[in-house]
Each structure stands twice: as C-alpha cells, then as structure tokens.
Amino acid sequence: MKGLILAGICLGCLVGGAAAALRGYRGDQEYKVLLGALAGAFLLYTALFAALPADLGFLPRGAVEPAASVDFWNGALVLALVFHGIWTFTYMAWTGPTIRVLRALARARDRGLTMREILGEFESGGQVNALLRRRLPKLVGGGYLREEGGVYTLLPRGRAAGGIAARVKRALGDLGPP
Questions:
Q1: φ, ψ for residue 27 (rounded to 5)?
Q2: Predicted local distance difference test score (pLDDT) of residue 125
C-alpha cells in the first residue's frame, strides 16, 4: 500500500511540475518536458520509498505489503501506467489532428472551412491528409461536424470537445495555433 500511496503523491507532483514547465517552455519538443517530469517523479518516488517506513506512520498492519520489493514495483508500475495515460491525453489535446480540426473550425466560427482549408492548417501532407480524409466523415457521422456543400462547421458536440482541448492547452501553456 505504501508504494501506491507514494505513487499517487508523485503523480500529483508530476502533473503540477509538467504543467508549470510546459507553461514556460517555448521549444517544439514538449515530450522532453514530460519525460523530465517523469524522471523527476520516479526519483522522488524512489527517495520517498527508501526514506519512509513501511507503514508510513499511519497504515494498519493489514495494509502493509510484507515484501518491500513487491510494494515498490506496484507503485512504480502504477506511476508508469498513469503517466502513459497523461502523456496520451496531453498529446491528443495538444497535437492530435482531430482536435486541431475542431479548433480550426471554432476559429472559423459559422463561416466553416472547406476540406482544402482544413488541410491547409497542417504543414505536412501525405499521411495527415489521408488521415483527415478518413477522419472528417467519422466526425460528421459522430455528430461533431456538419458538412454542407463541401463546407464543414462545428455542431455543439464538436464545439464542446474542442473547448475541452482548448482549456487543456491553455492550462499547459498554449504554444500557438493548434
């Protein structure tokens, strides 16, 4: 139980530290900030695990894992797996093509955007274009977008999803256009 409790504490530090670092970071390799936060969280976890007693001073005897190595690795695994979820969510909200499309359409408001204008939001071609050509019909079918006469506009569901991503980006320090 000690490992799980310490993993939770270190995850809080990881999220807070990464958010603060990303707000000030102006490079284009955000993954380095996230990996640095993970390394810091693992160092903190290891130091706390080594320094604190097995019962943390308050755990009942039944909640103490008898094998310290099992307790340590349980917490380390939870820390790594939850970090992976944070990483995935952050990148989806920060750089995901679907979110970028929703944010571009939000900026266009009721005017909407054509497929060519949407593809123009991305610097790369090829794979992104193919992805968006498959993804846009799914967003229309899912009730996120409306397509009329080759112009895409946001529906309330798409506006809400784009708004969540915008709030995440703002909290982490939006690095510019989607």
A1: -90, -170
A2: 56
Q: How large is the average pLDDT for residues 150-154?
A: 91
Beta strands in 41-167 (DSSP E): 113-114, 145-148, 151-154
**Domain final residue pick, 59, 78, 95:** 95
Residue 75 structural domain: 2-95
Asked if residue 153 lies in contact with residue 112, where contact means CB atoms within 8 angstroms, the answer is: yes
What 123-129 contacts at long range (C-beta under 8 Å, 24+ apart), as own/partner pairs, is 128/97
Q: What's 28's DSSP letter?
A: S
Q: Which amino acid is at 159?
A: R
The C-alpha R_g of the chain, in whole angstroms, comes to 21
* Residue 140 near residue 155, CB atoms below 8 Å: no
In this prediction, residue 174 carries a pLDDT of 59
